[in-house]
TrEMBL record:
It holds the Pfam family adh_short. This is Unplaced genomic scaffold K443scaffold_19, whole genome shotgun sequence. Keywords: NADP, Oxidoreductase. It comes from Laccaria amethystina LaAM-08-1. Belongs to the short-chain dehydrogenases/reductases (SDR) family.
């Protein structure tokens, strides 16, 4: 069955590639982007490559008015949302994030899209997800959000703003999965693993955006018997929270 899917932050990186993979499989995909020019260009690029079924929708996860407007567009055209992929995020890795000296403004800036924005996007769109027969919410997470992994002595990359904002989003994922379990809506967090994108200044040695998106793909397309309340690593295995 063709699904109606919204991917936030889909004008670039992993979200863009996931949009491509989903549309190639015949689904109707709303390509969410906060910058309308970038969003329309991304949609046009897919259309130019013969990929149909992608619709651009302006959506800044930190601006409630744009989320409400996007919900109305999808409501009017589709009447439901089968899958929400909360992919939009920032790392601010170009800013100092040492835990003992981090500027609180940086922490707040990271929390805006990665945590508060994810929650308000989810709660605003939830009525549309409830209208779907088999609702799925996929929160794009990171290994660096795993408190268990980060607590190990050998762990590195302790970015005080990025890690905490994504760990908070993981905590929300757990709570939401419990809340929606009885209604049959699946809520999971999945990490694509280290992927070379704008988010890490196209860091060396990362996987391609296609490989990153392929890790997320089955978790967006879960069937009605699929699991909920899991944190999944880049190998498709359960990760410690
Ligand atoms: N790359 C990795 O190694 C890696 C690893 C684990 C998890 N992740 C996660 O993967 C997700 C996608 O990141 P990426 O690596 O593909 O980086 P990316 O290319 O920078 O993509 C991030 C996307 O989020 C958008 N965005 C940022 N703030 C937004 C807002 N307020 N409202 C709506 N969209 C917003 C960006 O839009 P603009 O283009 O307008 O900035 C961009 O489209 C993120 O959640 C990230 O935490 C990435």
């Amino acid at each position: 069955m063709s699904k109606v899917i919204l991917v936030t932050g889909a004008n670039s990186g992993i979200g863009f590639e996931l949009t491509r993979l989903l549309a190639e499989r015949g689904h109707t995909v709303y390509l969410g982007a906060r910058n309308p020019v970038a969003g329309q260009e991304a949609r046009d690029k897919l259309h130019a490559n013969g990929i149909k079924g992608v619709k651009f929708v302006e959506l800044d996860v930190t601006k409630l008015t744009t989320i409400v407007a996007a919900k109305e567009v999808i409501q009017k055209a589709e009447g439901r949302l089968d899958v929400l992929v909360n992919n939009a995020g920032i790392s601010l890795m170009d800013q100092p994030q040492a835990p003992s000296t981090v500027d609180l403004a940086i922490v707040r800036e990271a929390f805006e899209p990665n945590f508060f924005g994810l929650i308000q996007t989810t709660t605003t769109l939830l009525p549309l997800i409830r209208a779907a027969p088999n609702g799925v919410i996929l929160n794009v997470s990171t290994d660096m959000a795993s408190n268990t992994l980060q607590a190990r002595p050998e762990a590195g990359l302790h970015f005080a703003a990025y890690n905490t904002s994504k760990a908070a989003a993981n905590s929300y994922t757990i709570a939401l999965s419990h809340d929606l379990r009885k209604q049959g809506i699946k809520v999971n967090a999945v990490t694509p693993g280290y992927t070379s994108t704008k988010l890490n200044s196209f860091g060396e040695g990362g996987k391609s955006v296609k490989a990153g998106a392929e890790i997320l793909l089955p978790w967006a397309l879960l069937d009605k018997d699929g699991p909920t309340g899991l944190f999944i690593d880049e190998h498709g295995k359960e990760s410690p929270w």
